[in-house]
Design goal:
This is 50S ribosomal protein L9, chloroplastic. With 158 residues, the chain is α+β, with helices and mostly antiparallel strands. The protein is 34% helix and 26% strand. The chain is elongated.
């Protein structure tokens, strides 16, 4: 019977496990392959304590970010739609394009929280009308918002 060695994985390996997991492997496998390739490190009591502390901090940060995300979702649900004025040409086509920064600035005005433009996903908007934007707050928390494009009235023609 071979002796098992306790190790901590430094990176995710398909057949072994995910990064940060503590596993038992045979001593030969650990000392001849995993440790020299820096795939894993020996699980000493100090490193295990450090890993536990690090995972506790990560879990705490995840909980606080989920709470903030839920507050943002509740605030976004208050908004029924966001209206943007754009110059319109023939066939209700808009000049320029609607970008995520404009939507983010409108959300800031309504709820007082600045979303990153990468969190907002919109399809290409070419005409006036009502469209839907997807707001990715966290990887598992999403919200949808209606965007209304309103023609900007020019009084220069009169």
């Amino acid at each position: 019977m071979s002796k098992k060695t306790k190790i901590i994985l430094n990176r995710t390996e398909e057949k072994i496990g995910v990064k940060g997991s503590v596993i038992h492997v045979s001593s030969g496998y650990a000392f001849n392959y995993l440790l020299p390739q820096k795939i894993a490190e020996l699980a000493t009591p100090g490193k295990l304590k450090h890993l536990k502390m690090f995972t506790n901090i990560q879990n705490q940060q995840l909980k606080t970010s989920k709470i903030k995300a839920k507050i943002i979702v509740l605030n976004l649900e208050i908004i029924t739609k966001i209206s943007l004025k754009k110059k319109i040409g023939d066939n209700k086509k808009i000049f320029g394009r609607v970008n995520t920064r404009e939507i983010s600035n409108k959300i800031l005005k309504y709820i007082g929280y600045q979303l990153d433009k990468k969190q907002i996903v919109i399809s290409e908007i070419k005409k006036s009308g009502i469209y839907e934007a997807k707001i990715n707050i966290l990887s598992d928390i999403k919200n949808y918002l209606k965007i209304q494009i309103i023609p900007e009235i020019n009084n220069n023609n009169f």
